[in-house]
Backbone:
């Protein structure tokens, strides 16, 4: 969603980094470009004015003049103020001491209320909660049935009746008590536009339920209109937070950057994809870091911890360093990585990725082709790809629906990866000597080293030395930055 804005910030900060000392005119030019970039991203005008004003106040004061590296200080200031505009800190949901904790979902039709009701229920369930979903959207045909279908996927019950929304909400309280449910999430009806009937219905439901949290579900693709919708609902319901959907889309992102400052309520959760588990707590600092092209290592680590078994990951890493990593291991790692989300989103979380790499579109189907090639190999071929000759290549290509040259490319790339990863390995353990343990031996001069394994080389140096080699590696079926 924020790719264009990230590219703009890359250009702005790139100009600043080329200057050792910043003049006031340099700062003014950078702020002008930041203002234009935010306006082009469909950020609310008042939000842009406030944000740029805060940046200017800090950038032309003592904070910048005392900095050893003014350009880096400008980036730091923009990061901190952008984080503040997005909400500052992540919203923490606390559960009621006396269950049930009641959550009311509101929003316009098409914003994704029903789907995100299930996503939120799935998140709470993963935290050990007994959730009951309530289908109070009786206006949209099959809305309750959609909720029941989603409920079966995540094994969460759904309560609804063929009466009226307010009666359903009232009856759900008794249902939760009878079934021992400690969280109620109520899905309400929406309209194509805000009207009095919609507001009155959701207001009555809110009065009956008296929810601890009222979340407004907003489609991030709606741009600045999302802010107007949020203001209208807030005036009626006193919102506690916003759930932003379609954050993985190609909209300009203005809603995410505007809603907190205009409405005064934080973005609580974000839907990052279509799958039921692509839903997460919204962290303003992490999104700000991604917008500025600094990646999001914390989220990447969390996703990796959830997807990878620690013991298996350590064993695979050790085999990679030792050069015993096989194509079976490679296949397993690819499957684990896919659990973390789309490859494009993972690349976006890596800090320092150049624009050419970020802009490469990698679809899961392209990775599936690699899996098909490996699965068409025998166990012996996966363990030792060097035995794959022309005859074997033809058989593997036919079995995977690929071309023989694609098989060759994969094997070549895999061999190159093994060679490159050995550079990061530690020195092999020294052979144990014979004789007494404490027996001393004379040395013929030379520099001595401390006991223990030899230290690893500086990864940053190794990465710099290997950049050309890395960029030259090509996986079959995956687009490269220089492809047309």
Residues:
């Amino acid at each position: 969603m924020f790719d264009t804005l990230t590219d703009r910030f890359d250009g702005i900060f790139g100009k600043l980094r080329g200057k050792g000392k910043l003049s006031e005119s340099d700062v003014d030019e950078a702020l002008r470009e930041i203002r234009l970039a935010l306006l082009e991203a469909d950020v609310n005008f008042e939000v842009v004015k406030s944000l740029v004003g805060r940046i200017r106040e800090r950038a032309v004061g003592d904070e910048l003049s005392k900095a050893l590296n003014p350009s880096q200080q400008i980036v730091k200031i923009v990061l901190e103020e952008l984080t503040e505009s997005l909400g500052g800190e992540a919203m923490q949901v606390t559960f009621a001491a006396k269950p049930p904790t009641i959550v009311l979902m509101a929003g316009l039709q098409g914003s994704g209320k029903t789907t995100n009701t299930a996503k939120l229920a799935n998140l709470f369930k993963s935290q050990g909660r007994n959730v009951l979903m309530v289908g109070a959207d009786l206006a949209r045909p099959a809305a309750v049935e959609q909720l029941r279908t989603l409920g079966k996927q995540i094994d969460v019950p759904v309560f609804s009746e063929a009466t009226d929304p307010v009666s359903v909400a009232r009856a759900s309280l008794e249902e939760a008590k009878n079934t021992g449910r400690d969280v109620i999430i109520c899905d309400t009806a929406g309209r194509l536009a805000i009207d009095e009937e919609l507001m009155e219905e959701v207001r009555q439901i809110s009065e009956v339920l008296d929810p601890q949290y009222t979340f407004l579900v907003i489609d991030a693709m709606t741009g600045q209109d999302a802010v107007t919708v949020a203001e209208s609902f807030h005036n009626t319901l006193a919102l506690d937070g916003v759930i932003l959907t379609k954050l993985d889309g190609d909209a300009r992102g203005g809603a995410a950057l505007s809603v907190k400052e205009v409405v005064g309520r934080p973005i609580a959760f974000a839907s990052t994809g279509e799958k039921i588990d692509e839903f997460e707590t919204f962290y303003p600092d992490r999104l700000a870091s991604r917008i500025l092209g600094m990646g999001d290592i914390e989220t990447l680590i969390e996703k990796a911890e959830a997807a990878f078994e620690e013991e298996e990951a350590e064993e695979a890493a050790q085999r990679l360093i030792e050069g015993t990593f096989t194509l079976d291991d490679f296949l397993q790692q690819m499957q684990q990585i896919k659990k973390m989300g789309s490859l494009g989103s993972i690349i976006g979380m890596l800090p320092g990725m150049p624009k050419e790499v970020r802009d490469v579109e990698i679809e899961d189907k392209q990775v599936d082709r690699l899996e098909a090639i490996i699965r068409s190999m025998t166990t012996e071929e996966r363990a030792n790809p060097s035995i794959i000759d022309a005859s074997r290549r033809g058989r593997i290509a036919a079995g995977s629906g690929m071309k023989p040259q694609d098989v060759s490319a994969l094997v070549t790339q895999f061999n190159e990866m093994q060679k490159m990863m050995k550079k990061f390995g530690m020195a092999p353990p020294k052979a144990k000597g014979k004789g007494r343990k404490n027996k001393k031996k004379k040395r013929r001069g030379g520099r001595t080293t401390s006991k223990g394994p030899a230290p690893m080389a500086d990864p940053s140096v190794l990465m710099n030395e290997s950049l050309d080699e890395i960029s030259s590696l090509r996986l079959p079926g995956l687009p490269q930055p220089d492809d047309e």
